[in-house]
Amino acid sequence: xxxxxxxxxxxxxxxxNYSSIKDWAVTQEDFILCKCQDCQLIFTxxxxxxxxxxxxxEFPEYYSHQDESKGLVQKIYNQVRKINIxxxxxxxxxxxxxxxxxxxxxxxxxxxxxxxxKGWQVVGIEPNKKARRLAKEKLDDNVFKNLKKIPxxxxxxxxxxxxxxxxxxxxxxxxxxxxxxxxxxxYIILALPNHQSSDAKKYAxxxxxxxxxxxxxxFGPETVDYLAKQYELEILEQKSMVFDSYYASLLSxxxxxxxxxxxxxxxxxxxxxxxxxxxxxxxxxxxSILYILRKK
Length: 296
Ligand SMILES: [Zn+2]
Hints:
Helix content is 35%, strand content 23%. The protein is an alpha/beta fold. The strands form 2 sheets. A 7-stranded mixed beta sheet has the order 6-5-4-7-8-11-10, sandwiched between helices. Strands 1-2-3-9 form a 4-stranded antiparallel beta sheet, with no helix packed on it. Helix 1 (71-93) packs parallel to helix 2 and helix 7 crosses helix 8 (263-283).
């Protein structure tokens, strides 16, 4: 385990214990969350180091690494993914930029494959070997293990990180690297779980968005504000990811009831998702938030 003595985002030594959360999905181990008193980032600390973290991803239900449908939650996940891909495309298409995109954490390459078919130049980063192999087949081998494999001078119009930034060790270094690969006036699309959402508050320690220790960081909107200022990015928009409230609620129901997903969980998750989205319309605190940032 790796114990951080400074906040991984702002380097402040001024942080306090915030709570303790179990790894419901895989190991049932407990992890402590700390909260930075300066930038408000909540972070998992201590945490498995880069070599140790791999084992925490080794479970059959890690949905974003699979193509085939197995089980109820996976089936729902795949259907929603299809709808989300087209939503994401339209959102990015509307930005009216050049047509090069780098998707960090591209999984099996579904999103990039959609962009490719629309005539975009696409490149993906995916650390998981199995997912990367599936992505490479779709994307003419334009998928790499990490950012270091891409020539330093390569720059993109759009860089996307859908539920990815919270998984990366070496946060500051990664952010610097990502921005170096972005053209000036280029866009970063960042999707992050939001621990200030109504579903997060409802499920508390059972909330699926904590997902420790795979989620190393837990960003609220004020921390993303801080991040944007530090890295000379401008937040243009904060958008809803309406499906995420249902998905997070469904997994949280499963964790809270300590059983496989069933019909009752689906009903409860639906109610919780509707409530969360409704509240977020006024507060902006969606279960996950999609931030559109532009390089200044
Ligand atoms: Zn901090």
